[in-house]
Amino acid sequence: MSSFVTSAHEAVERRFAARALLANPILSGLHHPDQLAVVRRHAPWLRQMYFSRAGYSLIIETGFARLSKAPLDADTAPRPALRTTGQPFISRTYTCLALLCSALLAPAVGDQVLLSVLVEQVRADAASADLKLSESTDEARHLVQALRLLIDWGVLHETEGTVVAWGLRADEVLLDVNRPLLPHLLARTLRDIDTPATLLAPKLISATQDEPRRTLRRKLIENPLVRREDLSDAERDVLSRERTELTRVLDEDFGLVLEVRAEGALAYDPDDDVTDLTFPGRSTVAHAALLLTNALIDDLSPKAGQVVTLPVAPGEDSDDGLRRDSPPTRPGALAPWSIVEASVEMLIERYGSYFGEVYRADASLLLNEVVRLLESMSLAEGIEMGLLIHPAVARYRPDPQHSPTRAARRMGSTIDGSSAPLWIEEQS
């Protein structure tokens, strides 16, 4: 009995540690002392498990753990770094982030640094790289957002003062620097890297029979939804033949529940502890996205198996460099932008009292944010002709056999995640 209890306890701890690393690929002792302690306790098992399951490498030191993930396919929805407002970093913010990391690695920077000294180094590095970095308030905002991300990662710690106060009034700030963590921020070294494409290209892993299994697990772990058309033939074969084993592995190692349907698959966390994107959700954008997709499906009345033919410019080649014999197609239904815009304006008119004020006043802003959320969930894609709705959105359609909750009735839609005809259960 004692041996069984010990084994069960270890299994729970290992899954806790694996989930902690999924939620925070950079675990610092400053921000996550309890999680890091468990990760350190099960370090050998975690290193082996993450490499064999997903091809990830795990670095564990006294003060941090860093899970370095392999790049995903080009079909994967981008997951940018986010500002404190929830808006994605733009190129200028990423430039500031890169310059800050470079400045922190300068020989003169020790375990502590004054922010004014660090910013001077940043500006000097920018000048040497022929980059213009002004002293404007707008430029300071980008630096503050980059600094705050480094603080969240545990690279920096505000010992005296705050970076926000520096951005507002140029107040001095004393920062602690976690120098051992700095070289591990990038998933791979920049040595012999000469282009961004080379940096983002997946590392070559020795070809083994389990490679489709590993790439499939990686997609399921990292993506809100894995569309069937984005799977290779080998991955689809693994999903079909080894669904029971895949379900067991995802549950035992990560606490994820596998759901496989005709349009694709997703591995979701019922507790939302390792989820960085929630849909449906409680925010204005999440509510509006749900209401919009439901309204568009009602208007378009898509059929199972429906596809959209995409336009091809004269002489355009396919992604593999070969001339296309026929135009490309995508599963789903297409809503022209005029219909999408009218639908968003209708939602504001009907439900605006429940939306954030900034979105009530700006339909274009709400539309852009809704499209960005749906794209990040792989549920829709904005193309020149309109909004391409993937059949998987029907997973979130209301079920007429169930009564909506009071909150759902207030929003004019159920949000229980029940299934609708387009999202068909795959037969194993």
**How many domains make up the 3D coordinates?**
4
Please give the number of β-strands. Answer: 14
Order of strands in the sheet with most strands:
1-3-2
End-to-end C-alpha gap: 37 Å
Form type: globular
- The class by helix and strand makeup works out as alpha+beta
Task: Explain the overall architecture.
The chain is α+β, with helices and mostly antiparallel strands and 428 residues long. The protein folds into four domains: 2-68, Orthogonal Bundle (Arc Repressor Mutant, subunit A); 91-184, Arc Repressor Mutant, subunit A (Orthogonal Bundle); 211-268, no CATH class; 284-311 and 327-411. The protein is 44% helix and 13% strand. α1 packs across α2 and α12 crosses α15 (363-376).
List keywords for this structure.
single chain, 428 residues, alpha+beta, Arc Repressor Mutant, subunit A, 3-stranded antiparallel β-sheet
Per-chain topology:
Elements: H1 2-23, E1 26-28, H2 33-41, H3 43-54, E2 57-60, E3 64-68, H4 91-104, E4 112-114, H5 115-128, H6 137-153, E5 156-160, H7 163-169, E6 174-177, H8 196-200, H9 211-222, E7 226-227, H10 233-241, H11 243-254, E8 257-261, E9 264-268, H12 284-300, E10 307-309, E11 329-331, E12 333-336, H13 337-351, H14 357-360, H15 363-376, E13 380-383, E14 386-389, H16 406-411
Antiparallel strand pairs: 1-3, 2-3, 4-6, 5-6, 7-9, 8-9, 10-11, 12-14, 13-14
Helix pairs in contact: 1-2, 4-5, 4-6, 6-7, 9-10, 12-13, 12-15, 13-15
Summarize the structure.
The protein is α+β, with helices and mostly antiparallel strands and 428 residues long. It contains 16 helices and 14 strands. Helix 1 crosses helix 2, helix 12 packs across helix 13 and helix 12 packs across helix 15.
